[in-house]
Fold this sequence. Notes:
The chain is α/β, with parallel strands linked by helices. The chain contains 13 helices and 17 strands. The strands form three sheets. Strands 1, 2, 3, 4, 5, 6 and 7 form a seven-stranded mixed sheet that branches. A seven-stranded mixed sheet has the order 9-8-10-11-12-16-17, with helices on both faces. Helix 8 (235-243) packs across helix 9 (255-267) and helix 12 (328-349) packs across helix 13. The protein is globular and about 65 Å long. The relative contact order is 0.13.
Amino acid sequence: MKRNHLLSLVLSAALCAGMRAGCNSGMPSSSTGSSGAAGGSQAASGDTIKVGILAPLTGDAAQYGIAASNAAKLYFDQLNAAGGVNGKSIEYILLDEKGQAADAVVAYNNLLEQGVTAIVGDVTTAPTIAVAVESASANIPMITGSATAAAVTVDPDTNAVRSNVFRSCFIDPFQGEKMASFSKEKLGAKTAAILFNSNIDYSIGLKDAFIAKAGEIGLEIVATESYADTDVDFKGQLTNINAKAPDVLFCPDYYQKVALIAPQAKEVGLTATFVGGDGWDGAIEAINDTAMIEGAYYCSGFSADDTSEAVQKFLSDYKAAYNSDPNMFAATTYDAAAILADAIKSAEDAGLTAGSDDYKAAVISAVSKTDKDYVTGHFTFDANNDPVKDAVIIKITDGKYTFDCKF
Length: 407
């Protein structure tokens, strides 16, 4: 899903986008909401405003993509039912990019052809970065609810901020730093080990930040082990880690890998407390025996145990719409859609034409000036277009995700 060789991915994606006749067989499927069939070349058609939604609806990251896109659709449907934006409905166009950077670029170009004026997405890191690179020339406002790598909003080669790109979730360094501090301050850990995925930008970003913060606060790293994305046997690395008897094991990867690693950790006798990032969301559903991850902690942007009216209404509305409980990716993407809609309203209030350069600039400016409560907290944005808000620590207890604290 997320490879280190990002440049080659992006170049490959761009090549595929340029050779559209050769790539049409892989064209992402689409769905449209609120105002009929997608199409046309205008960002506004009559009383509608076109907004794109990019998400992996198939492939390894589909669990994230379905939850995120469902939440965005839910928000826009609710907004339209309440009168839309100054009487105009949001016409959303959802495309499946399969969790791949090349497909995401093809889907992005498809959205441009259909005349969207802004985008919610993408979902995972590498596709989001690929689209962020492509979107710069058109200055399309885009906000992701779940892509956490620092490179999503800041070009790692030039350190220039991608001015049109925002996120409503935490960045990888934030999560890595938080979990190092949490391990030291709340769990009383003196030593830590790290087991990370050497092929995933997300995993590498959290690992690097954890190590840096650990050095600052005196949390000793006694072992650092890695594995390839295709690996399924981790006993060698876990045996090496177990020999160092760490207090905590930081495993910054997605739930699919966690579900494989945790049982093997128990097999080798590892008793360290597992800690992780927001990619752990889904681990309970993916593992056969939840006892294998009992007592683990991970950083999240959302907890269903929050008793606030906004959170409880979101939980109820999502369950009513989809007959399932929303995860953290749904909550942060719901907020992403809401933030974008509020910014679109600013452009509409100014009497600008959807899709025009002035309109897009107005939306981008409005997002950057956000200062408002949403479902996952009060939002402002820093100089890198990253949100400033509290983190939630989730503990896996009795086979359930439980709120531990805000940290």
